[in-house]
Amino acid sequence: MKLITAIIRPEQLDEVRSGLEGYGVQGLTVSGAHGYGRQRGHTEVYRGAEYTVDLHPKVRIEVLTSDDRAWDLMDIIVASSNTGTAGDGKVWMVEVYEAVRVRTGERGVAAI
């Protein structure tokens, strides 16, 4: 099993979710995040006061999947979250050794 984690722009969430659901993903976790990459922060002016925005709002998506579907899901996330500009995000995959569905006690791929 693999856990795919993506940090993307909030406005791309609907497109990523649609792509994953179209591929048959039945569950995912979405949470808010803030951070920066190469684009770093920038300064803005609000009511005459200048301030620095150094953490940009992002969305973190996590999908647990079987090994045979993992690369396809990564490709879907990358394709549907790409705007071609700095700050599009990152996607990574890690090995998951065990998963348990709490309600039924099912383990492994059956728990997905």
Keywords:
Alpha-Beta Plaits; 112 residues; alpha+beta; four-stranded antiparallel sheet; 23% helix
Characterise this structure.
The protein has helices at 13-23, 67-81, and strands at 2-8, 29-35, 42-46, 49-53, 56-65, 89-95. The strands form two sheets. A four-stranded antiparallel β-sheet has the order 2-5-1-6, with helices on one face. The chain has a single domain (2-111), classed as Alpha-Beta Plaits (2-Layer Sandwich), CATH 3.30.70. With 112 residues, the chain is an alpha+beta fold. The protein is built from two helices and six strands, in the order E-H-E-E-E-E-H-E. Homotrimer.
Brief summary of the model shown:
This protein has two helices and six strands; from the N terminus they run E-H-E-E-E-E-H-E.
**DSSP summary: helix tally:** 2
Total domains? 1
Radius of gyration: 17 Å
CATH class: Alpha Beta
Q: What is the spatial order of strands in the main beta sheet?
A: 2-5-1-6
User: What average pLDDT do the residues reach?
Assistant: 91
- The CATH architecture assignment turns out to be 2-Layer Sandwich
Strand element count: 6
Structural class, from secondary structure content? alpha+beta
Report how far the terminal alpha carbons are from each other. 9 Å
CATH topology: Alpha-Beta Plaits
Strand content: 35-45%
N-to-C series of helices and strands: EHEEEEHE
Q: What is the makeup of the main sheet?
A: 4 strands, antiparallel
Estimate the helix proportion, in percent: 10-25%
| Unreliable parts | none
Q: Quick one: overall form?
A: elongated
